[in-house]
Amino acid sequence: MKNMRLGVKIGVGFGLVLILACVLGIMAIVNMGSAQKSAEHMKNEYVPEVGIANNLERHVLQAVSAMRGYSYTSDNAFFEEARKEMAEVRKFLADAKGLAEKYPQLVKLRDGAAAGITKFAEYEKLANDTKALLEGEAKDRGERIKDATTALALVAQYQKSQDESMRSEIAKGASKEEMLERHQKLSLLTDLMESVADIRIKVLSGDVSDDLKLYEAAKAKFPQVESELQKMRAITHQPVNQKALDDIKAAMALYRTMVDKQISNTKAKVDLTKKRLAAAGEVSEVAKQIAQDGMAQVGQLADKSDQDLETAETTMIAGLVCAIILGVIIALLITRAITGPVRQGVDFARTVAGGDYSKTLHIDQKDEIGELAVSLNTMVESHRRGHGEHAPGGGGTPAGVRSAHQCVRGTVRAGGAVQPWSGESGPACR
């Protein structure tokens, strides 16, 4: 500090304050830049990730609901709705894959999209298999109803023929044994009609409720029908009646085949439904995991952004306080570095102005004040050496002393301020 010029000292002081301000500004910019980067991550990566996951889960659930309606009703309107929802699911899975490819750090989105695409392809295949099964089931239902109607018509026709035969036998006065046999046939026919009707009611109820137990209960009645036909065959002697029973048996066999097929279809449909729900559940779970991960990342980035902004605010406040304190300290140091030597110079000048040339100004500095101190010391020393004798008629006061006295007076003005000498004190000051 002693060897610096006054301008350099002042410049250094202001420079330190500016450097501190720049450092604080850079720190604040860095923190705010980090907060902005976190906000951009949220905007460009994790918020879209959460949005895709939520839309994906929503459309998967809607597709499942529509397929459930189609499975229960076989109404194509439900399947068309399911197809639209499945197209939306494919779209959002593609969006997820594209976002993961654009931002490789979205690892869970990338893995989830890959798993979701695989599982949803499986779901779509199962949905198409369900449609094919239900369409085949509808066709089989028509044939099954036709077979049941044919069997009932044959039983009714045979029953009618037996009623006519009984009336004929009564009119002819048939024997008791013949009448008992006819009565037995009619009783067996009545039981047969009830069994066939019961089977048909259970099957139709199963069609309405899609209840596998009803189909299986209907299937359990077929052995009873076969037993009743066997008993009737044993007491039937006329070829035409035997053929009628054979036709009934053949029709019931076809009907049983269709009931067995319906049972198989129902089991397959139940199995497809379970597989569909499992595949959809996995896709939905993938969407949930993606959404949860995205929300967690958004929360972390929001916290980090908040911390960065808080750090920037704290840095600015602390830096402002430090800048003020440092500015005050630098101002005080520079002021003392300037005013202290100046005060010494003023005091020295006043001493010389009072006529005391025995003092020396001790200021060891290389700046302007140091140069002034050297000049003052040189001037006083010069007058002390060169004008030690009395001037003629001086009245006891050395001429050199008067000359130096006048020189100093010309340098020091009222109030102690040091002014440049203008040469008004005479040749002795030169």
Enter the CATH topology name of the largest domain.
Methane Monooxygenase Hydroxylase, Chain G, domain 1
Counting DSSP H or I runs of 4 or more residues, the number of helices is 9
Unreliable runs = 389-405, 407-430
- Encode the helix/strand succession as letters: HHHHHHHHH
Domains, number: 2
Report the count of strand segments. Answer: 0
Separation, N- and C-terminal Cα atoms: 32 Å
Oligomer: single chain
The structure class reads: mainly alpha
Biggest pleated-sheet summary? none
Q: Give average pLDDT, whole number.
A: 82
What is the CATH-assigned architecture of the largest domain? Up-down Bundle
Tell me what portion of residues adopts beta-strand conformation: under 5%
CATH class call of the largest domain: Mainly Alpha
| Global geometry | rod-shaped
How helix-rich are the residues, as a percent range?
A: over 70%
Annotation keywords:
430 residues, mainly alpha, Methane Monooxygenase Hydroxylase, Chain G, domain 1, 2 domains, 9 helices, rod-shaped
SSE layout and pairing:
Layout: H1 6-73, H2 76-102, H3 107-172, H4 176-209, H5 212-219, H6 222-234, H7 239-353, H8 368-386, H9 399-411
Helix pairs in contact: 1-2, 1-3, 1-7, 2-3, 3-4, 3-7, 4-5, 4-6, 5-7, 6-7, 7-8, 7-9, 8-9
Quick structural overview:
Helix content is 84%, strand content 0%. It has helices at residues 6-73, 76-102, 107-172, 176-209, 212-219, 222-234, 239-353, 368-386, 399-411. The chain is rod-shaped, with a radius of gyration of 58 Å.
Walkthrough of the structure:
The chain is mainly α and 430 residues long. It has two domains: 42-304, Methane Monooxygenase Hydroxylase, Chain G, domain 1 (Up-down Bundle), CATH 1.20.58.920; 355-429, no CATH class. The protein is 84% helix and 0% strand. It contains nine helices and no strands. α4 (176-209) packs antiparallel against α6, α5 packs antiparallel against α7 and α7 (239-353) runs parallel beside α8. 27% of the residues are buried.
